[in-house]
Amino acid sequence: DYTEDEARKIGVVGWVKNTSKGTVTGQVQGPEEKVNSMKSWLSKVGSPSSRIDRTNFSNEKTISKLEYSSFNIRY
């Protein structure tokens, strides 16, 4: 819920999901500066109960149209 709230505050769309390996996966879309703000939050702050050992952002690309209309938690 903290990640979803932060994404909405920053103004990005996409999703996150906890994996069975104890990691988090997801997708963030929006203007580059907003995506960078979200990446920074995910890398340095995160949810209060999370422990961040490292972050790995991959498959970064420029898109012409957002594929999501909001930010959600997937289960």
From TrEMBL:
Top-level lineage group: Eukaryota
PROSITE patterns named in the record: ACYLPHOSPHATASE_2, ACYLPHOSPHATASE_3
Keywords, in A-Z order: Hydrolase
Gene3D superfamilies: 3.30.70.100
Class in the EC hierarchy, top level: hydrolase
Family: Belongs to the acylphosphatase family.
Name listed for the protein in its UniProt record: Acylphosphatase-2
Natural source organism: Bos mutus grunniens (Wild yak)
Taxon lineage: Eukaryota, Metazoa, Chordata, Craniata, Vertebrata
